[in-house]
Amino acid sequence: xxxxxxxxxxxxxxxxxxxxxxxxRRAGYDVTLATTDTFAPLVRDAGLDFRSLxxxxxxxxxxxxxxxxxxxxxxxxxxxxxxxxxxxxxGTDLLLLSTTTAPLGWHLAEATGTPSLGVYLQPTAxxxxxxxxxxxxxxxxxSANRATGRLAIRMAxxxxxxxxxxxxxxxxxxxxxxxxxxxxxxxxxWPIVHGFSTALVPRPSDxxxxxxxxxxxxxxxxxGERLPTDLEDFLxxxxxxxxxxxGSMASGDGQRLSEVAxxxxxxxxxxxxxxxxxxxxxxxxxxxxxxxxxxxxLLFPRLAAVVHHGGAGTSAAALRAGVPSVPVPVxxxxxxxxxxxxxxxxxxxxxxxxxxTAGRLADSLDRVVGERAHSRAAAQAARHVxxxxxxxxxxxxxxxxxxxxx
Length: 406
Known about the structure:
The chain is of the alpha/beta class. The chain folds into 2 domains: 2-216 and 388-401, Rossmann fold; 229-385, 3-Layer(aba) Sandwich (Rossmann fold). 43% of the residues lie in helices and 12% in strands. The protein is built from 16 helices and 12 strands. The chain has helices at 11-14, 16-26, 40-45, 66-82, 102-112, 142-159, 161-170, 178-187, 229-236, 254-268, 296-299, 312-321, 334-344, 358-370, 372-385, 390-401; strands at residues 2-6, 30-36, 49-53, 94-97, 116-120, 192-194, 211-213, 242-244, 272-275, 288-291, 305-308, 325-327. It has a 7-stranded parallel beta sheet with strand order 3-2-1-4-5-6-7, with helices on both faces. Strands 10-9-8-11-12 form a 5-stranded parallel beta sheet, with helices on both faces. The termini are close together. Mean pLDDT is 93; it is low at 59-64.
């Protein structure tokens, strides 16, 4: 039984599917993860087959405004759609589609007759419980939240118009707009499992049936993997440090952010680890270490706090480790996750990225490390997160969709 997972975007949009794919592979499925070439090593390290999707998020502009974000997304999706018809072969028995790839994958499923399942990392369906995750706005009340949620869906469909038109023509399907296709999926109760914790986002009561929240899919890492020696030595050399990193965000801001981080750590009197990431953070000093990519699952439990961009994966990893956060959201859904962490009490109020200064960061570090309430809230959430088996629950859904002899 062959399963194809299609995912695209930043590292945080892809890495969780390595964990989900590894769980499906252990259950006996042949699993291929189709994504952009940047993440081929992640896929292969998880023991999954890799299939290339076009487009590359690394070459995109750095604008964070809504119009710039829409233009960037439309350009990325159009490029992505140009090669999307090639990812499904005759041997594919089930297609798993991420938030980004679903509006393209639906047309592949229609053309090939392949069953499909949504595997989303964000809660995109409109609800009265909260406004659309992409807007980063505060709740406007239940009716307004639902209305803005429907508007956000329409805006997302516009991003896919050109890509869908081209894809359907190539697949020899009659014309159909993204919004029309989406409405058809909604009427058919197309199933979606959401890979985030109910500690952060309980399942909204006004969602339709077929939408489930199952818990996180944690990025795969080798059970025998250990932290680098220099990092291990640094961790053992003194009090628990603070990690500061922005994932794949903030390209071009590395020098400013490095200086802000170093000054804030000195002012707060804390040891710190800077994770280079897309920004290229770097600093030298007896109480500061610069590192590259390491598994969150190995590092985070040994920290005093995490300063991060508010990405879904990093936010969840901090909760899983029971470590409080200082979120500095940059764009897209990051303000949403930052707000959820703060609402739980597991984080300070978010510092907007463009408003980040050494003084503001030092003050937040003083609070998050010095006030035990944040640590207690993070620890309480961690006890909830570890009870969830997101990959296992997704596997059960897959089993119900595939023949017993698969």
